[in-house]
Design brief:
The chain is an all-alpha fold. It has one domain (3-80). 70% of the residues lie in helices and 0% in strands. The chain is built from four helices and no strands. Helix 2 packs across helix 3 (35-54) and helix 3 (35-54) crosses helix 4. It is globular and about 35 Å long.
């Protein structure tokens, strides 16, 4: 595992609040859903990302952490729509 990924894995959910705010600001304009649904998708994306790291599906970041989370959350929202 590379250093950048290890640093991300030790972050708490509280440390991800600014990223969640950025996600909400971006996607509430693109996808007209209630904030609680957008927040839930973001939280699920974080859990999926960390689970994939834990089982070894993600061992090295090929893009910024934020792009992974946003892509996973967007996929969740598209599946719900």
């Amino acid at each position: 595992m590379n250093i950048e990924l290890e640093e991300i894995l030790v972050k708490s959910l509280d440390e991800l609040t600014p990223l969640k705010t950025e996600f909400l600001n971006k996607y509430r304009k693109l996808i007209p859903l209630p904030d609680d649904q957008l927040t839930e998708a973001f939280d699920q994306a974080v859990v999926i990302f960390f689970a994939n790291c834990h089982v070894g599906k993600i061992t090295k970041l090929q893009a910024p952490f934020e792009k992974y989370i946003f892509a996973i959350a967007k996929r969740i929202l598209n599946e719900e729509a």
